[in-house]
Amino acid sequence: MGSGMGMGWGWLFWLVMVVGVILLVVVAVRALGGGVTRAAGSSQPAARSRARELLDERYARGELTTEEYRERLQTLGDDS
């Protein structure tokens, strides 16, 4: 009778183990950069940040007029 009671909790142990392994995998993937890369302190993707950097560089080199720069900033959705 006692061994039947112990077997009833076996499924709970395995359920906790499976959930733990899944959480461990999710944390590992996020830590290794498996998700969308974000710029530090920003909610925008890093690609948009890189586009802004390139735009700023071109403007600084004089390749773009102020009007062109502002239009492209607006296109990027980053008018700050």
Write up what this structure looks like:
- This protein is mainly alpha-helical and 80 residues long.
- It has a domain at 46-80.
- Helices cover 69% and strands 0% of the residues.
- The chain is rod-shaped, with a radius of gyration of 26 Å.
- The termini are far apart.
- The mean pLDDT is 79.
Number of strands: 0
Compute the number of helices: 4
Distance between the first and last residues' Cα: 72 Å
Overall pLDDT score: 79
What does the main sheet amount to?
none
- As a percent range, the share of helical residues equals 55-70%
Relevant terms:
80 residues; mainly alpha; 4 helices; 0% strand
What's this model, at a glance?
By secondary structure, this protein is mainly α.
Itemize the secondary structure elements and their pairings.
Elements (H helix, E strand, L loop, with lengths): L1 H7 L1 H22 L14 H15 L5 H11 L4
Helix pairs in contact: 3-4
